[in-house]
Amino acid sequence: MSLFKHLSVKWKIYLIALVSVLGFGAYLAFNMWVNTGNAKLLSHVRDASFPILERASANRVKLDRITELLNSAVLTGETEYIATASSTAASMQDNFDKIAELSPKTQPEIEIIKKSFDEFFTIAKKIAEDMSQGTADMNTIAETVEGKEKHLTTFSSKLDEFIENSKSNFSGSIETANNNSKHLLTSGFVIWIVNILIISLTVFAIAKVILGNINNVANSLNNLASEGGNASEDIEVTSHDEIGNLAESFNKLMGNLREKTNDLMCMMHNMHQGLFTITDKETIHRLTTKLASAKTKVDRSKNSQEVSIPALLAHLQEVYSMYDQILEERNEFARQLGRQQLLAET
Length: 346
Prior knowledge:
Layout: H1 2-5, H2 9-76, H3 80-102, H4 107-133, H5 141-225, H6 242-269, H7 283-303, H8 309-345
C-alpha cells in the first residue's frame, strides 16, 4: 500500500495495464514454449519415426515374401522366382539404408541387421539355385538348410526387435505430445487463475488507495462546510499523487484566505480611530461605511448556523473588493497631499 501512495494516479492506472500485459505475456510465452516443443516432436514423428516404422514393417513383409519365392523356386525349379526374390532383397537393403539415413543413431544397429540378412539370403538363394538346377549335394543339403534356418531365425528376431523399438519410439513421441498438450491446458489454466488473482489484487489495492484519498479529501471538505466547521483546520494529506497535490493546494488557498481575512478584520476593528476618513470628497468615508456594513455581514455569517460556505466567501469577496478600493483612494489622497505640500513650499 505504501508503494501505491507514492505513485501518481496516472502510473497507478498504467500499473494495472502493465500487470495485465505481463500476465498475458507469461501465459503466451509458456504456450509458445510447449507448442514449439510439440511441433518439433511431431515433425520428428512425421519425418523420422513413422517412416522408419513403416519401412521396417515393410521389410518384415518382404522377408516373408522372399521365403515364399525361394520355396516356390525349389518346388517348381523356375528361376524367375529367384530373380524376384533377389529384387525384393535389394528393395529391403534400400529400406535399411533409408532408415539409417533418417535416424543416424540407428546406423550401427542397421548394419548388424543388414549383415544378418545377407548371411541368410546368400545361403537361401544358393540352396534355391542348386535345388532348381538339380546340382544340390544331398549329403550336405540338410546341414545347409539347418544353417539357413538359424540365420533366418537370427535375422527375424533382430528385425522384430527393431520394429518393436520403432513402435515404442513412435508411440512414445505421440504420447509425449499428448501429455504436453494436457500439461499446457492444466498449467495454462493455473497461470490464468494466478493472473486473474494478481490483477484483481492490484486493482483492489489501487482502487482502495485512490478512493481512500478521494474520500479523505471529500470528508474534510464536508466537515469544513458543515455546521460548526472549523475553517482553521487543514485537510490531511495522506498521499503524494495528484489527489495529495490537490489537498495541499487547497490548504494553501485556505491559509491565504485566513491571512487576508485576519488582516481585514484587524483593519475594520481599528476604523473607530479615524483611519482612512480624511478626504475632501468623503469617498473613503463612504467606503468605510460600506466596509463596516460588509464586516457586519461577515460577522453574521460567522455566527449564523445556517449560512453556507459559498455565502461566507461571497461576503469576504465583497470585503476584499472594498479593501482594494480603499487602498486605491488612500494612495490617490497621498499623491494629492504631496502635490499640495510641494506647491506651498514653492
